[in-house]
Structure formats: C-alpha cells, structure tokens
Amino acid sequence: MTKHITVLGSGLVGSAIIKDLASEPSFSILAVDLSEESLGRVAGLDRVQTRQGSVQNEDFLAEICLNADLVVSAVPGFMGYECLKNLIELKKNVVDISFFPEDAFELNQLALDQNVTAVVDCGVAPGLCNIQAGYVQKKMDSVYSYLCYVGGLPRTRTWPFEYKAVFSPIDVIEEYTRPARYVEHGELVVKDALTDLEKMDFPGVGTLEAFNTDGLRSLIYTLQAQFKKEKTLRYIGHVELMRMFRESGFFDTNPVQVGQQTVIPLELTSKLLFKQWKLEPGEEDLTVLQVCMTGVENGQQVKYTFDLLDYFDVESDTHSMARTTGYTCTIVARQVLSGLFNRKGICPPEYVGEAKGCYENLKTEYAKRGITISEKREIIK
Predict the structure, then answer these.
(1) 3-state DSSP call for residue 310?
(2) Coil, strand, or helix at residue 233?
(3) Nearest to 134 by CA among 306, 256, 320
(4) 0.90 exceeded by the pTM?
(5) How far apart are CA 332 and CA 329, in angstroms?
(6) Would residue 339 count as lying in a domain?
(7) What is the dihedral of CA 173, 174, 176, 180, to 10 degrees?
(8) Residue 100 belongs to what domain range?
C-alpha cells in the first residue's frame, strides 16, 4: 500500500529528505516550498510532486496535508512551532527538524488528545545525539554524565569565517546569542553562548575549538544525569570573530536609525553573511560528532563513546550536514510509518533511542547510506 508523505521545505536539508524518501517505491511524496528555486531541486523526481505556497496559510497547509500519512517539517525555526501546532490540530503524525526555540512539550497534551506522534528535533544534534542518550540511559542503571561535541564545517577553510551553513544564517546566529543551558551537579546553569572555549583534536579533521551553545534542549529534562553539556565545534578563530560581532551589536534585534532608514542589525548582518556562508553546489563539507556518557551498568562504572565523521557525498552531490540531519529524519519517519516507533505525544529523539529496536535500525539504515558510527564501551576503573 502506498504511503503518502508531505514534506514542508525543500532547501538543502529538505531536498535530501525528499530524495531519500522518494527512493522508497511504496512512498508518494508531496514537496512543498514557498521558493520555486528550492522546489527545482526535486522537481521531476520519480514519486515526487511539488506545490508552491506558504505553509503559514492554514487553509493551504490543510489542503496539502489532507491525504498525508505523515508530514515532515523542514521549515525555518522561526515558523516551526506554529507549523507543528497546526499539523497536530490536523491530526497528522509529524517528524520535525525545524529546531524552533519554543518548548515543544507545551504541545504534548494537544498531541495526546489528537492521538498524534510528533517526533521533534530529529536531526543530527539535536537528533542522533539524543537517540544515543536515550539508548544508553535505557541500558544503564544510572547515568552520571553526558557530553556532546558537534560541528558542521566546510572541508576547505576560507578566510575570514572558515564556516559555511546549510541552514539560514539567522538560525546559526541564534546559537551565538541564545544563553547556553547545561546541568552541573544536578543543577541548571546558564552561561553566555561562545564561552568556556577549549581546543580539541579530532582524527581526520584536526584541532577545533569547542564552546557553549544551548544544544541540550529536551535532554535537560528527560536525561537523568548529574552533568549534561553540549558544545559546538568550529575551526580555530571563529569564536573570537563571532564574539566581536555579537558584542558590537551586529546580532541585535532592536532597530537602529541609519539616516532616514530604520534597520534591524540582525537582519542586515544575516543578509550580508548569507552569500559568504552559503554552501555552493559541489562545495564539500564535513560533520563531526562525539557523544560521551558515563554511569553504572550492571553494577560496573562504564563509559560509552560514540563518534561520527561524515563527508560530502560526491556521488549523490549531497552535503554532509544534509545527510546526517536529513537521513536521521527519514529513518525515523520510516520507523513511525512502520509502527516500529509508535509512542504518542511530543517525542524528542531520546524517546526513539529508548524504544526497542529503533537505535539498531537507525545504525543499519545509516550504514546503507554510507554513514558509520563508531561505538566504544569501557569499564572505568
């Protein structure tokens, strides 16, 4: 029986999602985007139809989702929460990678009332790292610490930023401005983003700098550990440059008067950065992720370490961040459609990791797509 999937957004990540889902003969995909140029990435693919329009229009959203067995939301973060709310009200199961700043759990009762499965934050980080956290927490008697390092980087370092993004600059900049929350000795601690700088060596990549960002998200509440932190990775020097931008007001959202014009600094900065940060077709990138967890398992002190290093795929012309984010989403979407994951309500990815067979299935499906996760378990003496 054919499964109908509506995908909202066909940007770099959305198009990777659409192409992967379209490889399934039993799937029929409707790709939706406001941009005709973005839809051009997937137009003409087998089993893919396209519609141009704004998903912020509730009547249009209801129309394009009418026959959908599942909806994938790959819209920008600023519109993600409202879009998810509308989809739940339409009684549609959802896998969401919009990474909106609002608390998704505020929609939990609505999702339960509508008998909807809504997997949120289903990318690489948040996403894969959460799934690993849930998987390990289920195995352990108790978790002591969780630490995640993650970064998406261009393979070629280009002055001055040595950075490129598959997401919109505004979403990236928010990582540099939103206060970072982490947990220390069981207590919530808040620090400025771009703080606690440390240098780390990663085989195959080199020396990177790690800094605080607000990446724990739902793990603050769902992972029972005394110490929890996520840090973002960039090439050396990027942090100091972003701190200069932030402290000089370039990321501010309050309007300023420039001559006869009113300008919002963040919007201007994003506009200027977009061209320099945009990954061009064929421009290679990489994704590096390391998750370390310690705790007690079967009475022993143990440490789990997960490592991922993924590169731009030349054969399919797919960026690494689009692969690692998009394929996590498509694999979990398949798990929801097949019933392997069937929990109702708002479901952060750690719930997927806790569900029987889901993490093992994820690793198998990753391998089919050329993504390898190394996993090490050590007894701590």
Answers:
(1) strand
(2) strand
(3) 306
(4) yes
(5) 5
(6) no
(7) -170
(8) 3-120
